[in-house]
Amino acid sequence: MNIEAIQEAITRLSPEEMARFRAWFKEFENEVILSEATSVTSPSREHINKLKGSLKGSGAMKAFMEERRKG
To answer: CA 22, 34, 24: angle at the middle one, nearest 5?
Structure first.
């Protein structure tokens, strides 16, 4: 499947399906960002500050900081 086919499929979603897709995609993006952040062995303060902006309000930054404290 290519990006054009994905885009076309998204445009055909009902409003309810679009809401479900948005919620899923937001969670997916947060997981990808969190995975990238935790793969850094020792993230710099600059890296963490960049993440704070991109994850604001998602709860992912809080999860990342919890994992960092445990590790």
So the answer is: 15
